[in-house]
Amino acid sequence: MEGKIIFKTARNFVLEILDPEADYRTKEYTLYLNGTYYVTTDQTILSVYGLKPDTDYEIQLKCGNDVSEIIALHTDYEYVTLNVKDFGAKGDGVTDDTACLQAAIMTVPEQSRVYVPRGTYRFTHLFLKSHMKLELAKDALLLAIPDSEKYPVLPGRIESYDEDGEFLPASWEGSPTDTYASIITGMYVEDVVICGQGVIDGAADFDNWWDLEKRKNAPAARPRMMFLNHCRDIVVQGVTFRNSPSWNMHPYFSQNLRYLDIRIESPDNSHNTDGIDPESCTNVEIAGVYFSVGDDCIAVKSGKMYLGKTYRTPSKDILVRNCWMERGHGGVTIGSENAGGVDNILVKNCYFVNTDRGLRVKSRRGRGKDSYLTGITFEHVKMDGVMSPFVINCFYYCGPDGKSEYVACKDPLPVDERTPKVGKIAIHNVRCTNCHVAGLYFYGLPESKIESVEMENVFISYAKNARPGVAAMMTGCEVDSRKGIFVRNAERVTLKNVILEGNSGEALDIEGVDQWSWD
To answer: How far apart are CA 113 and CA 116, in angstroms?
Structure first.
């Protein structure tokens, strides 16, 4: 056992415990700071607060008789702290503190922080600037005011004076669409840290933003909890996010993003409350995050038709590790807005509990030839109570054209510029218990088959009282229960030490697969 500092500021740090013998949250660790007890935890990624700037610390871990070596840490320099109460914020749960909070953000110099002490601060929306830190103290609550008349509208697209140029301030589900400013918005900013032990609550419910029919796209699309547009070098750490009006974290054409030890919470029946949705982003780290949401926990995207074809920017190099994903439609989802492609997604050491699906790939004809989804790997993952652990659906039917004959047709159609492709999928050392509908349900396009599926050391068992359902949202997918491994239209399927327990019917149902083996 050893510990590794994976992030630090002047006031806190994040420690990752590296223990090859530990399973997810099955061991307890005690952390000592300068020889004094600090906390006992079962988390392998945890945050430590209350430090002094520009100061040396020693950290040590104990687990039973196992004691780590001492980890040396020197905190960062800090120039000044700006307390939002010094800028007039009341924090009384009644006053609208938006202007005071924004004033502190706009005033803070580099190598400094904006500090939100204990209290409840009502506000509508905040805009970030570069080179700043925003820290929420324990028992600090930023509580949004869910009044759409108080939110500015960000235009989806503004024509530029450059030839064929444009500026895209806003987005909704993969298209440049007019959208209300998000609870927190970053536009072309860099070097930003949002951290602390406090809570940001979007105050959404079914009487305001979650009224889906009225609030989806008119007069503007719902705000997100945090929207980062063309940003880079951003860290979100420690904070709890609750009740977002729609997607929680939506980075858009951004780079070098870290989401560490945060909590994202919304009721399981809330509309579109995805956890983290990187869209056309590069180098994203999601570590130690707890998700319990009403839609996909993580959804990796790269634009719908216009954005994908125009900018051809994939989401790539995304690492998800040591996360807990509870409820929601999918644990880690690819798409369905993926016209720019997706490459190199690694999910490891995670736990999925009662999600509808574990791995969920959503695509369909029309996404285009740049929609190449490949390098998707799951390893050392546990799932319990997941309806269908592994789903690839190349006939995803949501949206205005989703149920068209072109999308739904199961016969091979001509390959052209509208045809997407699913590449390499690898699933290693995964244990799924109490699943309900299907262990694995992969349905590729007959004219553009899934390149390869490689499963090794995978165990799938089924709940005794399995609930029937549909594995994939596609035309022709029938209600089922305890289905084994179902594959249609793949170039190669390799199954090694794959064990099914408690399935109904044949374990393997394969058609349209060019090469397959089961050892």
So the answer is: 10
Q: Quick one: tokens of 23?
A: 């399973």
Residue pair 261/283 in contact (Cβ under 8 Å)? The answer is no
Alpha-carbon dihedral 388, 391, 395, 398, rounded to 10 degrees: 60
Length of the chain: 519
Catalytic residue among 125, 230, 271, 329: 329
186: Cα separation from own chain's centroid: 18
- How confident is the model over 418-469, as pLDDT tens digits? 999 999 999 999 999 999 999 999 999 999 999 999 999 999 999 999 999 9
pLDDT in tens, 88-117: 999 999 999 999 999 999 999 999 999 999
222 near 244, Cβ under 8 Å? no
Amino acid at 15: L
Tokens of 289: 């995050």
Question: Which residue among 97, 261, 295, 480 is the active-site one?
Answer: 295
Which residue shows structure tokens 């349900």? 441
- In this structure, which amino acid lies at residue 406? Y
Answer yes or no: 295 catalytic. Answer: yes
CA torsion angle for 132, 136, 141, 142 (degrees, to 10)? 0
